[in-house]
Design brief:
Layout (H helix, E strand, L loop, with lengths): L1 E5 L3 H17 L3 E7 L4 H13 L2 E5 L8 H18 L3 E5 L1 H13 L4 E5 L11 H14 L4 E4 L2 H9 L8 E3 L22 E6 L8 H13 L4 E6 L7 H10 L2 E3 L7 H6 L2 E4 L8 H8 L4 E4 L14 E4 L4 H12 L3 H18 L2 H12 L2
Parallel strand pairs: 1-2, 1-4, 2-3, 4-5, 5-6, 6-7, 8-9, 8-11, 9-10, 11-12, 12-13
Helix pairs in contact: 1-2, 1-13, 3-4, 4-5, 7-11
Length: 367
Amino acid sequence: MKILILCNYASGLLTFRGMLIERLLAKGHTVYAVVPQTGEEKELLAQRELERLGCGLYQVSMERRGMNPLKDIKLFFAYRRILRAATPDFAITYTIKPNIYGGLACRLARLPYAANITGLGTAFQNPGMLRALVTALYKPALKKAKVIFFENEENRETIVAAGIAERRRTHVLAGAGVDLARFALAAYPKERTETSFLFVGRVMREKGVEELFQAMELLRKDGLPCALHILGSFEEDYAQRLKRYEAEGWLYYHGYQNDVRPFIANCHCFVLPSWHEGMANTNLECAAMGRPVITSEIHGCLEAVVDGKSGLLCRAKDASSLYAAMKKLAQMPDDQRAAMGEAGRRHMEAVFDKRKVVETTLKVMGV
């Protein structure tokens, strides 16, 4: 079969679906990816790596965030042109714009396709015009999908309850899974003068960074020796705040990193107080490497943690709840924290092994 994959980031496709692409190619399928045109170095590197794997590329102009009707209509027609040129036998779409405009293009072309809802994002957080608009677009776009994949049960329930899709055409995966070989168990740091917390993600309010900063300031007031290391790009204007906290001596900002593993290995605990997620891959990666995880008690985060055994859950948008969890972790002896990390690794092996997720995906799609 000739399979076309529509996505909004080449780097995300390579990182989270690279193993799926490798399995499709190994099964004898021809694979093409439709990726956004970009000048970003990490995206260009990802595109070259996809080609090295044997995946062909098409490029489209895409505004990945926000909704611009004119640009989105152009995206739809770009997908239509690519479908006519590529003549695929099956398509796979990831994230909201490829799901909507790619799904509509596939439907009109009478092409079998599978959609992946990797998270509902801000559009579904509150009732209003944006949610109504996205719902209205999703309904026709997903109507003829062979299967609609979700990364957590709550997201599926939201879509089914909204009348966007029938339950019989849906399937919940264990997120994208985690590559247990790449994110191998790392020895827990024994020598420490302070507890090193790690955050990996976009620096923005919806990832819970405000609550995280408040919790850290409370820990410092308690006299607990703690440091916060942040990896990720800015989505909002936090530059001055981070510089101030760095000057105070408790925050270290490392920017975007191609390889997060050395930072995970050197930390004592990973923290992600996100407001909403499809399935937080960073939680899975850190747990796989044997680090306790503190994260929000929301679907997309809570699945990664066996509460009290492999990590701790806190209430989303609640700095005091996050502070209590971080304080509890900071006061734990090393052997208890190391045991938590080992329990997290076992949980990843049992539930989130990427190899199992890939094989399930192929089986459900029937390719």
